[in-house]
Amino acid sequence: MTDRFSRILPVALMVLPGPDGTVTFVHQLKGPYAGSWLLPGGGVEPGESAGAAAIREAHEETGCLVESCSPFAVYEFMGQWTEGRYHLLMFAFLADGIHKVPDGFNGHNVGAVRQARIGDLPLHSTDLRILTDAGFASFSEPEVDRALASDGITMHAMRVSGAATSRVPAPGGR
User: What is the separation of C-alpha 74 from the centre of its chain, rounded to a whole number of angstroms?
Assistant: First the structure.
């Protein structure tokens, strides 16, 4: 097991709203979820706040400069991968405003960056709950639980009260 995953690892992610109702995803190259489309994020460095880490990771991976954001949840993930067990403590932030990935941008430590609507990419099981909590999707708890169980992931959510509002259109509405 890599030293980085031999302990509880604090990480931060950013939900980046994109143009035309899209969300920004990165194709992960490393770590337990390598090969998956995920929300941009990564490890919190010593002396760095979780919010600063989310902003830094979003910029490194997507080229988007986030000026302000709001925390909406903290997640605890536990699972197993080829290197052994992992335990992540994920701080989730929602960027204010709409962000466009710069043309031709190649993200740091990611295979690709894409701005897509929910359902246009195969979502990782953890993103079902995160995108629902951020107000960009409306996956049911049983649906999320089934997907997580299928991936062998235990995920606990601690939501920040009143931080995210629904961006999912009401049935029949736009």
Answer: 11
Q: Report all structural domains of the chain as residue ranges with CATH numbers, in order of start.
A: 3-158 (3.90.79.10)
Answer whether 0.90 is exceeded by the pTM. Answer: no
Burial class for 167, CB neighbours closer than 10 Å (0-12, 13-18, 19+): middle
Helices of type H across 33-140: 50-62, 125-133
Distances in Å between the alpha carbon of 152 and those of 14, 18, 54, 91?
A: 24, 30, 26, 21
Residue 31 has pLDDT above 90, yes or no: no
Quote the CA–CA distance of 95 and 18 in Å, as a whole number. 10
Is 90 exceeded by the pLDDT of residue 82? no
Q: What is the DSSP string of 22-33?
A: -EEEEEE-SSTT
Residue 116 sits at φ, ψ, to 5 deg, of -140, 160
